[in-house]
Amino acid sequence: MFVKRKTLFVFLLITLLVGVTAIAPVAGQDEGVSLTLSIGPRGFGDAAPVLIETCEQEVGVTIEWDRISDVPNESRSIYVTNFTARNDKPDIVAVDVIWPGDFAARGWIAPLEDYFTPDQLAEYVPGFLAAAQVDGHTYAIPLYIDGIHLFYRTDLLEKYGFEPPATWEELISQAQTIVEGEGDPDLVGFVSMWAKIEGLFMNWLSFFQGAGGTFFDADGNLAINSEAGLQSLNTMVGMLESGVAPESVLTFRPDDARILFQQGRAVFLMVQDFVLPPLTADDSPVKDSVAFTRVPYFEGHDDTNTTVIGGFLLAVNANSANVEKAAEFIKCFTSYESQVQASLIQGKVPTRPAVYEDERVISDAPEVAALGADFNFAFARPSAQTGTAYPEISEIMQTEVTAALLGEKTPEQALADAEAQILAVMP
User: Can you state the angle between helices 168-182 and 227-242, rounded to 10 degrees?
Assistant: First the structure.
């Protein structure tokens, strides 16, 4: 009887020890540290689960993946609700490029510069990182980037002996020559997204920066009602009046412009790079005659940045109980190797310039690599400087630029009215 009891005791002891071993934390993991990462399932696609697993092991945490909506307005609404309630979850959030200034001003996201050295921050596209830098603090880390580029018909430019236009003066001249030479009533010179949407503001900013303009001057003063502001808006109006851009462009969203170009009915197209896959698909009529370059600048301003950017960054909830670990996870998730893998797995465009030169990306994702040259001229919309007022400022600019394009106001009056309204809403 004693032997049986002793045997039972040994069996139970072994079972207990095995159970303790089974639930012990993996070497290198911080026991109990679980982070919630909020990022859309389509936004980062198949790269997300791969990088989550890699960074769980590297950082020593477990990740709960909150598959939030990929529609920016919907995900932003959910974030605002959580942040307003001071919830500590999710710990890490994927934020649109125009959100960090607003979220930082409201105290919703944590500054991260204590967890990244200046040299580490310098490895990201400067124009993108600037979108998350407010009052000397860095509130988010670039994850993937997109931007506006100039797409063009290689066959038509070659036919007329043109190189891709570097300046707006060249583009307008080339468009007029080609359209006149082709004699095709369905062919237009230039299309873009000039409907009253955020993309219109982005368009004007590209023209504006290409004329040497900056939304705020070196002293922080609003600088839109300036020589550069007038040159940019006058040029856009002139493209409509001369017929280089059709009147229908005032109703165009990005895909409307892409469809017209893809049908072979436009020489130049100025939209974001997400149009590249459909333009080059096997069933695209222009698949063998499309290329892209940076958005033009005006003569005498070749040193300006004209690639206005979009994309997403990763930020940390200011109420997270694990800010430091969350920052470590972001460092891994946006590392050089992680961005190489995201490029190869999902075609996501890197926010580290060095990745564009990686042999694996050049070989297996050449279109991603080719975009790198344009992002050397990247700049962000003025959301970091305007904080909570950015949505209203964008709306003002869309309204006033539209008024000028429709001929309801002169460019001078439109910019003067925009300036007055923006000054009234600035924090």
Answer: 0
Chain centre distance of CA 174: 30
Q: Is the Cβ–Cβ distance between 124 and 142 less than 8 Å? A: yes
CA distance 47 to 119: 26
Q: What is the dihedral of CA 416, 417, 419, 420, to 10 degrees?
A: 120
pTM: 0.88
Q: Which amino acid, one-letter code, is at 172?
A: I
Q: Residues 23-58: pLDDT tens digits?
A: 334 444 445 799 999 999 987 889 999 999 999 999
Instruction: With beta carbons less than 8 A apart as the criterion, state whether 85 and 319 touch.
Output: no
CB atoms near residue 322 (< 10 Å)? 21
**Token duo for residue 393:** 């400022």
What is the per-residue DSSP string for 362-418?
A: HHH-HHHHHHHHHHTTEE--THHHHGGGHHHHHHHHHHHHHHHHTTSS-HHHHHHHH
Q: Would you call 244 helix, strand, or coil by DSSP?
A: coil
Closest alpha carbon to 103 in 76, 126, 141, 75: 76
> Residue 404: how many CB atoms within 10 A of its CB?
23
Token pair in block for residue 231: 């040159």
- CA dist 132 to 98, 121, 136, 256, 276, Å? 9, 11, 10, 31, 27
**Residue 393 C-alpha from the chain's centroid:** 19
DSSP string, 118-146: HHHHTTS-HHHHGGGEETTEE--EEEEEE
End-to-end CA gap in the chain: 84
- Sequence-distant (≥ 6) Cβ neighbours of residue 12 within 8 angstroms: none
pLDDT digits (tens, 9 = 90+) for 71-97: 888 999 999 999 999 999 999 999 999
Say whether 71 sits in a helix, a strand or coil. Answer: coil
The answer to whether 264 and 195 have CB atoms below 8 angstroms apart is no
Residues 193, 197, 203, CA angle at the centre, nearest 5°?
50
Q: What is the dihedral of CA 66, 91, 71, 350, to 10 degrees?
A: -100
